[in-house]
Amino acid sequence: xxxxxxxxxxxxxxxxxxxxxxxxxxxxxxxxxxxxxxxxxxxxxxxxxxxxxxxxxxxxxxxxxxxxxxxxxxxxxxxxxxxxxxxxxxxxxxxxxxxxxxxxxxxxxxxxxxxxxxxxxxxxxxxxxxxxxxxxxxxxxxxxxxxxxxxxxxxxxxxxxxxxxxxxxxxxxxxxxxxxxxxxxxxxxxxxxxxxxxxxxxxxxx
Length: 206
Hints:
10 helices, Cytochrome Bc1 Complex, Chain D, domain 2, 58% helix, 206 residues, mainly alpha
């Protein structure tokens, strides 16, 4: 009997481990629910398929789901402050955040356009090479040369509206947006002109 019990023990442990893993594994996003949530809660401001037509509201299409979920959770907790977005995010439970973020990641972003070649040239210099004399690193080092970003950590920037980018960089610089110490430290010595240039250059990335 001891021999039988000893032979059965590894199998029992394996079954327990598989069962525990299945129980702990996160549920897959429900894209249909995510689309429905987006249509009901988000589309009025952020546009069809996450392509906002209003320059002060960001394009969300093709953004990394993990990054979007992090921002929504930080709106909910108050770590990121915006009266409108905090109110909207408060209506979503964790599953709603997961589903709508995942759905947005499947949408195709429309290409943006740099509007001023002189401004874009200023932005290109900072984006690609930084400003070492002020300790400003190249944006491309984290957000990639084409603005594609890095999942969860560094968002996709390519094609983002100029007005929205100017507002976020200015808020990081001034300390109004406080949910990224890294971004505050990187942009605190940028001039208004450089911020405008970066925003224009980023809008034209694809």
